[in-house]
Amino acid sequence: MIDLIAKNLPALQVVIPLMAAPVCAIFNRSRLAWLIAFVVAIASFAMSVALLGQTLDGGIISYHLGGWAPPIGIEYRVDVLNAFVLLIVSGIAVVTLPYAAKSVAQEIPREKQGFFYTAFLLCLTGLLGVTITGDAFNVFVFLEISSLSTYALVATGAERNRRALTAAYNYLIMGTVGATFFVIGLGLLYMATGTLNMADLAHQITLRGDTRMLHMGFAFVLVGIGLKLAMFPLHLWLPNAYTFAPSAVSVFISATSTKVAVYVLLRFMFGIFGFDYAYQQSTLQYVLLPLALLAMFAASLVAVFQTDLKRMLAYSSIAQVGYMLLGTAFMTQTGVMATVIHLFNHAVTKATLFMVAGAFVYSVGSSKISELKGLGRIMPWTSAAFVVGGLSLIGIPLTVGFVSKWYLVQAALELGWWPVAAAIVLSSLIAIAYVWRIVEMLYLHSPSPDTKAKEAPLSMLVPMWILAAATVYFGTHAALTSAAASRAASTLISTSNIIWQ
Amino acid sequence: MIITDGSTAILLAIGIPAFVTLVIAALSSRPNLRDAASVVAAIATFLVVLDLLGMVNAGQTPSVSLFEVMPGLVISFSIEPLGMIFALVASGLWIPAAIYSIGYMRAENERHLTRFNICYALAISAALGIAFSANLFTLFIFYEVLTVSTYPLVAHKQTDEARRGARTYLAILMTTSILFLLTAIIWTWSATGTLDFRPGGFIAGQVDPALVPVLLALFAFGIGKAALMPFHRWLPSAMVAPTPVSALLHAVAVVKAGVFTMLKVGVYVFGVDFLSQTDASQWLVWLASASILIASIIALTKDDLKARLAYSTVSQLSYITLGMALATQMGIVGGAMHIVTHAVGKITLFMCAGAIYVATHKKKVSELDGLGREMPFTFAAFGIASFSIIGLPPFAGAWSKMYLMLGAANTGQLAIIAVLLVSSLLNIAYLMPIVARGFFAPAPVAAHSLGAAAADDGKRWREAPLLCVLPLCLTALLCLLAIFAISPLYDFLLHVPILPETYP
After folding, report:
1. Which sign does the torsion angle of CA B401, B402, B406, B409 carry?
2. pLDDT confidence of residue B1
């Protein structure tokens, strides 16, 4: 039995949440649905830990779905990079669910809660599937599963604010445009190479050499993923979606969905096209790098002027995606490593902050910044968690944000790109401005006398503080995460070098 | 003393103030016990630091490593002479500052005293962390902890003005530290592969000589706490804080952490010998000199007592930066000694300013006429501390200034000696009128009637509460007695390494 599970671990990672989702819908009882989702999340987390354990030493697990050998059959391919991302996604799911119990109960009508957890599990399935699969078309399928369920999840915010519906609709349109670009890109790649298996794609590309068709495929894929990961200026769906989604959804998607999209980008660019693909090199340097820099500054500046905490965090997310793209655009071991480590670090930080925002929504009924006056005294634990997350966003030492910034600046200096290094530190200074506005509101104002706010319930505080503690723990013991990120980067680079030799 | 193990003592010195924050939080409903906890912690910390001094004098180098944050970057502590001096200043002056805080904050009926005491203790812990850090990485961490932990203190009054001041404070300190200092540190790391402080520095031969002044500039401006012009604005704007906080900022921890870092970088990252050979710090000599003179002139124009003292601090801090930039042994000795003498002098001045405010609610220099006759202890202490800042022998400040001049003479830069002398004259011009007004100017009519009212109560003096006056008399006495400590201090500071180690 155990042996069977161990052998089929990659498939189970996706199949279990997929099978559990309809079960939630069938029972449609809020408590039970929650329990099922939570148990499934824990199971996924355990499996991803096991997978990371198997791949951390550089091993690659190749799992043939249904016994069909690749490149005809679908292959699930796990190396340290996607095992690491699986760990992030399932880990965030595990901490989000206990948090969700109270906040979902408040924000979503009872009869819809069962469906909420169904959509949540489907979203989890999609994200895990995108990450684990070694088949390019399979990526598209899972990407759509996760996107469709995310649209539904965002729309459930309509009970609190009707604008969630337009936000979800916007997201649906933009997301579908992105998916279309992506699938056209895949089609072009298929025309150019005759295969959809990623490893085989890489092999065929080197065999057949560079063609105009390949350029087209690359460009379409890049734009498609760019929409999904909110690459500036394709980010327009993100602020509203994050703002109006229910709190638990904001927490989950902000920490996972853009991260998974960044992973897909890394996998396509370095796993399929390879480091030495000249067309890609110039695209990264002349298109992606400026866009990343622009995102870092423009989105951060916009964040400074927001009046809503969740929207402010959303814009900050766009800026943070800019950092990840920047690390990618360096095209060096340190750069890719900085991207991968920032995937983790930003997931932890942003999840903490959105949990804080959700706790404010729960207690105050709003995430408007002006209504947070003096909450530092009334909700000390929630506010303190915000300070921890905020410091990490700025990149103060002892937090994970500092570790990311350290590697990013180091990567820039290694290449001798001084202006870029300066841009990284300069843009992180803008974070001081938007974080400190909130801190001042929380601590340096007196609460309004007729406030009924009180500290968030324990079931929200505990997950929040688990993540806040992780922010500090992995900020002070970054050897763990940096080892994983460094190996992930090396794996990508070594596979990519094999491609072009 | 009791503790014989160096690493335990280091952890205790940093840990006692950090731990006492928990005690303070637990005692928040019992004000007397809570405030006593601060004082007890201050004394305990000082005793531990003294214990460490004993070990260092016995020729040991206490050190301890905690854990690895990122591969190759370790939190570790190790004690050398400069750090020892700074730790003594920070922990030693915490005692009078803690006592003074009780008197001042209670007389002013300030609220949120638990938060105040917690942040104060945290700041001391961070300052000791800076003092003992064995590498740039550790130093940077505690440097930022110090910034963040002092922010609530500056904003303490929670008025609009306090919020604005605190915002400037945080913005400048954090901007400089992230923009310049962090960049400098990462550059150093990628160029040399190490961040460990090493006698004689480790930059030589690793960084393109043409870029060494640039790297030095990143450090010099990045250490915003040293308030080198043009990044000094945070210091005057932090004046909105309650006076005990000003004392902490100006004397005990914050600015001293800045100039200490400056010296430490000069001696243990660049190396004094390397700096003097390459002339990389020559520009800094002139910038520091300009900073000394300009800040003194601005101080002259300020009527607000605390603002005047703040600009005086900006000027005096540049003495220390100057000492480093001169890149001679005497410059370093003078700079390090000035950390001590300025701290003792400036804490007295600030505590006096606070005492005047508590007793009379007067903030402006022009309002102080005749007050000295009503507050003789406070004004006498102010006078003594002023003499020390001016550099009048035999008061403490004279000796550090003398060594700085010696340092300037050693490099043959007579113009710098002139700068120091002119600065002394300016010091007289902005400090002496305060004392003179207090003792010799006739009291204004309104104050007379007040004074008469006081006389009706049968009191001749209107001093601030005892807990305010006692600490400032104590530190004024230190300014006088420091003359006996100068010679051992000088001998101690000669151990600061100038040349690189010859062995690998």
Report:
1. positive
2. 53
- Choose from B118, B190, B218 for mutation: most chain A CBs within 10 A: B190
Determine the number of helices (DSSP H) and then strands (DSSP E) in chain B: 21, 2
User: Taking a C-beta distance cutoff of 8 angstroms, is the pair B312, B299 a contact?
Assistant: yes
From CA B104, how far away is CA B466, in angstroms rounded? 10
Q: Over 90: is that where the pLDDT of B105 sits?
A: no
CA B134 from centroid of its chain's CA atoms: 20
Q: Tell me the nearest-neighbour CA distance from B74 into chain A, angstroms.
A: 10
- Using the Cβ of A6 and the Cβ atoms of chain B, whether some distance falls under 8 Å is answered with no
Whether residue A500 has pLDDT greater than 60: no
A443 near B CB under 8 A: yes
Cα–Cα dist A327/A337, whole Å: 8
Confidence category of residue B139, pLDDT binned at 50, 70, 90: very high
What is the pLDDT confidence band of residue B503, given thresholds at 50, 70 and 90? very low
Q: Residue A471: count other Cβ atoms within 10 Å of its Cβ.
A: 27
Partners of A410 on chain B (C-beta within 8 Å) are 186, 189-190
- What is the signed CA dihedral for B57, B60, B62, B63, rounded to 10 degrees? 140
Output the pTM of the full model.
0.88
Q: Pick the residue of A386, A438, A444 with the most B CBs within 10 A to test the interface with B by mutation.
A: A444
Q: Which of A395, A426, A482 sits opposite B70 (nearest CB)?
A: A482
Q: Which residues pair with A78 in a beta bridge?
A: A61
Phi-psi region at A230: left, alpha or beta (left = phi > 0; alpha = psi -120 to 50): left
Amino acid identity of residue A280, one-letter, is Q
Q: How far apart are CA A68 and CA B255, in angstroms?
A: 69
What is Dmax (Cα atoms) for chain A? 73
What is the rounded CA–CA span in Å between residue A418 and residue A422?
6
**Cα–Cα distances in Å, from B209 out to A166, A226, B192, B220, B262?**
60, 43, 14, 17, 20
In 10 A of CB B432, how many CB atoms? 14
B455's CB contacts (< 8 A; 6+ apart) are: none
What residue in B sits closest to A411 (Cα-Cα)?
B190
- In the block, tokens 């002044």 appear at B213
| pLDDT confidence tier of residue A300, bands split at 50, 70 and 90 | very high
- Cα maximum dimension of chain B: 76
| B465: DSSP letter | P
> Is 80 exceeded by the pLDDT of residue B499?
no
Between A and B, how many CB-CB pairs are < 8 A? 75
Identify all chain B residues contacting A413, using CB atoms and an 8 Å cutoff. 186-187, 190
Dump strand ranges (E) for A250-356.
Answer: none
| A42-46, A394-398, A451-455, A456-460: range with lowest mean pLDDT | A451-455
Distance of CA A401 to the CA centre of its chain: 15
- Torsion angle of C-alpha atoms A321, A326, A329, A331, degrees rounded to 10: -110
pLDDT digits (tens, 9 = 90+) for B356-403: 888 888 888 888 888 888 888 888 899 999 999 888 888 888 888 889
Find the range with the poorest average confidence among A469-483, B166-180, B451-465. B451-465
Determine the length of chain B.
Answer: 504
- Cβ contact A175:A151 at 8 Å: yes
Nearest alpha-carbon partner for A47 in A23, A73, A78, A70: A78
**A390 in contact with B at a CB cutoff of 8 Å?**
no
CB B163 to CB A409 under 8 A? no
pLDDT digits (tens, 9 = 90+) for B41-92: 999 999 999 888 888 888 888 888 888 888 888 889 998 888 999 999 999 8
